[in-house]
Amino acid sequence: MRVDSIESQAATELVLDWAVNAETCQGIRMVCAAKVQMVNESWGDPPFRALINFVGLVMPDGHPNGWDPPTARPSATPPRERKR
User: What is the pTM for the complete model shown?
Assistant: First the structure.
C-alpha cells in the first residue's frame, strides 16, 4: 500500500490547490489518513490495497507509519521526541 512521504504544510498546499483549481485538476482528489491497521489489512486484501492506492494523497496517521520498513529510512517528517 502506498503511503506518501509528505510534510503537513505541503499536504495542506496540495489540498488547497485541488480546491482552487477543481475544474482543471484531473484524477481522484481524496485524502486518506492511513493507520498501521490499514497497511496490515492491505497485504491480504488486494482490492482494498488498490482502492487506497487510487486516492490522491495517502498520509501516515501516526508515528509507526513515519518509517519505511523495507529500507529503514526516515520519512520526510522526522518523528517528534517522545516524552517519558
Answer: 0.64
Distance in angstroms (rounded) separating the CA atoms of residues 58 and 73: 18
Residue 19 exposure: Cα atoms within 13 Å on the Cβ side: 7
Q: How far apart are CA 38 and CA 62, in angstroms?
A: 12
pLDDT over 90 at 46, yes or no: yes
Closest CA to 5 of 49, 67, 51: 67
Locus of grid cell 513515519:
66
Nearest residue to 31 via CA among 6, 66, 64: 6
Residues 5, 77: Cα–Cα separation, whole Å: 8
